[in-house]
Amino acid sequence: MTILDAVLAFAVVAGLLTLVPGLDTALVLRSALTRTRSYAWATALGVATGAMVWGVAAAVGISAMLTASELAYRVLTTAGAAYMLWLGISMIRASFRGGPGTGATGATTPEVPGSAWRGWLVGAGTNLLNPKVGVFYIATIPQFLPPDTSPLLMGAVLAGVHCALTMTWFAALILGGGWARRWLSDPRALAVVDRVTGAVLMAFGGKLLLDAPSR
């Protein structure tokens, strides 16, 4: 796997997961609908900042683990692949039960008056206090590390890709708040997103589990 292959493959997974409604999406959409546009953009940047911090932190931990123990690294990569499989299956099952697998568009967010700086703090704080973001990076980064590349550097690159995709999605939410609200309230659209994302995660997870013994 080359660096370009790793980045493109990660972008597919991260891009699909970005479309799955969650707390961050709910937070930015609510900011776009109830606050000023500058406040919404600041909230989106705060979320992206938190994701970048999580990604680099996960890369640092993975780099240290790789240095300390090859066995521990292999265990981590296998566990990450299994997690991707489980997440994919959970999303597909939930979509047939009538609800998105990780949807949280109905989540309540605090009413925070004030400046764009406060919006950034809310976005960053919400993301940094969400352990699911850390789990995502810890589970996925090892799967997309080409041979002879720095885990720290590659982790930062992958986190940057995720942030870019996230900001693109948030831009669509902010600029098309009314359309986004209707789309996110359509259970059929959300079910399709969950099923496609779940299938991709299962495919990646299954391939990684099969490849794990030969790594």
TrEMBL record:
Keywords: Cell membrane, Membrane, Transmembrane, Transmembrane helix. It comes from the Bacteria. It is found in: Cell membrane. It is a multi-pass membrane protein. The lineage of its organism: Bacteria, Bacillati, Actinomycetota, Actinomycetes, Micrococcales. The chain crosses the membrane at residues 38-64, 71-92, 152-180. GO terms for cellular component: plasma membrane. This is Lysine transporter LysE. Its main location: membrane. The keyword Transcription does not apply. One of its GO terms (molecular function) is amino acid transmembrane transporter activity.
